[in-house]
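Why does this matter for the project? Reviewers at the last site visit asked to see concrete outputs rather than summary tables. In response, this paragraph embeds two records directly. Each consists of the residue sequence and, immediately after it, the corresponding structure tokens. Nothing has been edited or filtered.
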Amino acid sequence: MAGSLESLVVGKVIGDVVNMFTPAAEFTVHYGSRQVANGRMIPPSAAVDKPKVQIHGHRLSSNLYTLVMVDPDAPSPSEPALREWLHWIVVDIPEGCDATQGREVVPYMGPQPPTGIHRYIFTLFNQKAAAMSGTLPPETRSNFSTRQFAAGNGLGPPVALVYFNSQKERTNRKR
């Protein structure tokens, strides 16, 4: 797991979105057959539909998780004036299940990077409360803060995180 934290530091995910943390859970994110791995390039067309997010563990556990997906590079990596752009929030995901078993607070929005290479970050938090029934969606998707959301909902530090890169796809123009 130390290697995975190193890639998060090098990719500036730790720093731009979250503080240093100790991984304490495992989860996988798939867009069809493509598994998200730190720094992997996934085109926007492959991430239009919400991914399958599987939290590893025992189904009989009482642990619940919150998933947050953001783009810290909006609208452009060189001038991220809208950092962080919120793409998805799911709460109350049972351990050993996928995100469809949780409650979607903010509907999924696929990547739409206008310029440059953007990072799309999935952060997993272990909920301290049994259920996050009072969690309300933010007023806007722009200028969201994963850190403030976690603090405001008593989530503590992340327990797992993975990210992918994406950039605007070229369109074929016929002349």
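We now turn to the second protein, recorded in exactly the same manner.
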Amino acid sequence: MSLKDEFATRNFSIYGQWLGILSMILCFALGIANLFNLFGHFLLIIFSILALVSCFIILFVEVPLLLRICPTSASFDAAIRKVSTNYMRAAAYGVMAAVQWVSLAVAVSSLIAAAVVLTFTALCYTLAGVKGQAFVGSKTLGGAGVAQMIV
């Protein structure tokens, strides 16, 4: 199934997964950018570090293939595997979005872009759950088909 076919299914979990990848890229780029902001507030640096932590959490949540090939602890693997349903993913992204929204109380920064995309990602997973759509992992990102091939 091609990427175009995946999007044509109108399954909001696919949209959420791809928005999650965009969120990961934004959290990484903006976390680094705000970390080295010379005019930044000290608390903004803390929120930048939290954005970087969110980036790596998203990486392991959205690309399940990495849990098989990266040396991680059993407790980390178990924690990441708990975020497997649409509602759990929506909650995780909602918490990460809330953290970035709170960063705006400290100082207005480019982290607002990460907050917006994380919020949209949480909404996509929430819509998938409300519509009763089963979570479908993108094969492009290492969904069930790819992960099974390397076992």
